[in-house]
Write a structure and sequence with these properties.
CATH architecture of the largest domain: 3-Layer(aba) Sandwich
Number of domains: 2
CATH topology of the largest domain: Rossmann fold
Helix content: 10-25%
Strand order of the largest sheet: 10-11-9-12-13-14
Shape: elongated
CATH class of the largest domain: Alpha Beta
Strand content: 15-25%
Length: 367
């Protein structure tokens, strides 16, 4: 591996943000980590009064610290790694006389939110932390060197050499957060996604009457009844050419990759609802990662602002564009919200059942 770091500072596992600074959303960071070097073995001989033949007693060096990454509960951003990017595990202590072993170096544990992907410098996947408490070893600390007591024998009874500890290893890492959600909201800017999220959950995202009000993803917990709950994710709106960087781009689409269902909201007050649906579908297809194959619920939003005739005409136009029935909803008035949530929850349960069946071990036939 490459050596890419200079001027290392020992890092503590716990990170602290500056005082009085508000929490910010950060979903991708680049950090530098180094394992701990092993301690060197000691060359020492026993020298005590009245002991005629002391012999070698140099102890072994301690093991260097490891670098771990762990998915922790209660985190939803990588903002802590904006303030500290270099992490170094502790160096192992050197061996000493009287067969004293050097102390092991202190490990470094990087705490990250559930759903974080860890990649190397070339963006090759190293680990995907999708469950709370999951821990992955990134770098192993160097072994300590043997002291001269390790080399004594009938031939060489007084060895005067010892091994140095193994050197530290450097690694450049990318960490990307993909939020764990069951249902994702997609649509053009100002389609009413944040209003729908506020109506469906206790989340309070920023809501305004201009495009790109939502600049970072928002999560909300939907409680349909006792035991019926799921996580709903709202991401910034997509516009034509988003996969080429237009608007906010498609970087936040990664937060709905893990969802089972997409709820596609289309603003019923705009002129061409069919074209609005096609624009977003084109961006999902251009992004890839399986989003275009996910189950989709298409809903005509803001129906409280339409008269019945216009509402039916818009619904028919949107249904012809997407090729399946369209749901009617108004996040602001709360119309049709519960029905869509229950339909989405049914799809989520079905998808989880399919995954559980695929992961179940096949029964072994025994005579």
């Amino acid at each position: 591996m490459k050596r890419v770091m200079t001027d290392w500072v020992d890092a503590k596992p716990a990170l602290e943000r500056p005082v009085n600074e508000p929490m910010k959303f950060l979903d991708q960071v680049k950090i530098y980590v180094r394992s701990g070097a092993g301690g060197g073995g000691a060359v020492s001989f026993r020298r005590e009064k009245f002991i005629e033949y002391g012999g070698p007693d140099g102890g072994d060096g301690g093991k260097g610290g490891d670098v771990w990454v762990e998915a922790a509960d209660g985190l939803n951003t990588l903002i802590d790694y904006r303030y500290q990017q270099h992490f170094k595990a502790g160096t192992g202590g050197h061996g000493m006389g009287r067969n004293r072993h050097g102390a092991n170096g202190e490990d470094v544990v990087l705490k990250v939110p559930v759903g974080t992907e860890v990649m190397d410098e070339d963006k090759n996947m190293i680990a995907d932390l999708h469950t709370v408490g999951q821990r992955v070893l990134l770098l192993k600390g160097g072994n300590g060197g043997f002291g001269n007591a390790h080399f004594k024998g009938p031939i060489n009874q007084a060895p005067r050499h010892a091994n140095p500890g193994q050197e530290a290893v450097d690694l450049v890492l990318w960490m990307r957060l993909k939020l764990i959600a069951d249902v994702g909201l997609v649509g053009l800017p100002n389609a009413g996604k944040s209003t729908f999220l506020a109506a469906a959950s206790a989340a309070r995202p920023k809501i305004a009457d201009y495009p790109f009000t939502t600049l970072t993803p928002n999560l909300g917990m939907v409680d349909l009844s006792l035991g019926e709950r799921f996580i709903l994710a709202d991401i910034p709106g997509l516009i034509e050419g988003a996969h080429e960087g237009a608007g906010i781009g498609t970087r936040f689409l990664g937060h709905v990759e893990r969802t089972a269902v997409l709820v596609h909201l289309v603003d019923g007050t705009q002129e061409d609802v069919g074209d609005a649906w096609r624009t977003v579908r084109h961006e999902l297809l251009a992004y890839g990662e399986g989003l275009e194959d996910k189950s989709e619920i298409v809903a005509l939003n803001k129906i409280d602002a339409l008269d019945p005739e216009t509402r039916d005409a818009k619904a028919a136009e949107l249904s012809a564009a997407c090729g399946h029935p369209v749901r009617m909803v108004s996040g602001a008035a709360g119309m049709g919200v519960t029905e869509i949530l229950r339909e989405a929850y049914g799809m989520v349960r079905a998808r989880k059942g399919e995954i559980a069946a695929e992961e179940a071990e096949p029964e072994v036939w025994r005579p």
